[in-house]
Amino acid sequence: MPELPEVETIKMGLEKYLVGHRVEKIEVRLKKILSGGEEHLVGGKIIAVRRFAKVLCLDFDNGYSALMHLKMTGQPIYRGPNLKTPTHLSEKIVGGLPGIHTHVVFHLDRGGNFYFNDFRRFGWIKVVKTQELKGDVFVGKLGPEPLRDLTEEMFEQIVSKTKKSIKVLLMDQTKIGGVGNIYANDALFLAGIHPKRAANSLDQNETLNLFKSIEKVLKDGIKYGGASEHAYVTSEGLEGRYQEHFLVYDRAGLPCPNDCGEKIQKTNLGGRGTYFCPKCQK
DNA sequence: CTAGGATCCTGTCAGC
DNA sequence: TGCTGACAGGATCCTA
Question: CA A34 to CA A99: how far, in whole Å?
């Protein structure tokens, strides 16, 4: 599922392909996906692509923006001029492109198309005035982001203020922006902290260690172009490679990467699959 | 305040 | 082989 590194990878691609292009027509095939009125975007030129935690944002020259949340299976894909491998597409794009799971199509000038695919239909696109972005019910409530504005001091504050389990806290978008299940699991492993620990039970050393571990796994995620273990593909429709570097995520029953002799265990926390090494994570 | 369950959806996979 | 049912998961909402 697309988290900060995946959305950042997509963002960099879309920046390359969409900026400077005008939207000639928008096809909304599934109404519930797009709210706020696609008509505001038609005729507008895309002047910037931004990312707020896991949310993508296309800014138009007419004062409107399109916010996009991919949830688990959203796939924003560009097809058209400038692509190095225009014919190649990942098998993770189920139903073809455009296909049965293509819910919104942005027709661009110069023959490009921007597709929003989502076979689970949880993702959304919201059209808002650029000036009112921060008032959006989702974007406005996002917490500070690692690798951007989350400092060690802020992290210590956030962690010390709750007895919620540390993993659930890491994934709470209103507290910390951008971290999802994959990177929360791997960061906790790297820091040697058990996912069920109460956040406020971490000492200063553990908190600092976790802060650095989060930055490390997110940077690795970006370095490898994101994790394509489920539906994630880049804006070119290609796969990332972080799944080849998972530490504990999705590795139940496999040996601990520290070679401690234990096997990775899977449990459930906050309704999410949670992976950890019972020996290395205290 | 916190924990846990239900909800939205459909591809995938285990079990028969 | 083919069908059925359980399951996963980001975020929200509801109940305990």
Answer: 17
Structure tokens at A144: 């500070």
HSE, CB side, 13 Å, CA atoms: give it for residue A168: 13
Per DSSP bridges, beta strands A265-269 and A124-129 are unpaired
Check residue A86 and give its pLDDT.
Answer: 61
What distances in angstroms separate CA A254 from CA A129, A247, A260, one per listed residue?
48, 10, 12
Residues in chain A: 282
Confirm if A46 and A29 have CB atoms less than 8 A apart: no
Q: How far is the CA of A96 from the C1' of B10 (A)?
A: 16
B7 nearest neighbour residue (CA to C1'): A122
A201 is near strand B: CB distance < 7 Å: no
Indicate the burial class of A47 (C-beta count within 10 angstroms; 0-12, 13-18, 19 or more): middle
Residues A16, A20, A22, CA angle at the centre, nearest 5°?
A: 120
Alpha carbons A134 and A121: distance in angstroms, whole number: 25
pLDDT tens figures, A56-76: 999 999 999 999 999 999 999
Token reading at A96: 């073809």
Interatomic CA distance for residues A215 and A196, integer angstroms: 20
Q: What is the pLDDT of residues A86-103, one digit of tens each?
A: 677 788 888 888 888 999
Nearest to A268 by CA among A201, A183, A171, A168: A168
Residues with CB under 7 A from strand C: A 1, 53-54, 69, 71-72, 120, 122, 137-138, 141, 171, 173-174, 180-181, 271-273
| Phi and psi at residue A256, to the nearest 5° | -60, 135
From the alpha carbon of A54, which nucleotide's C1' atom is closest? C10
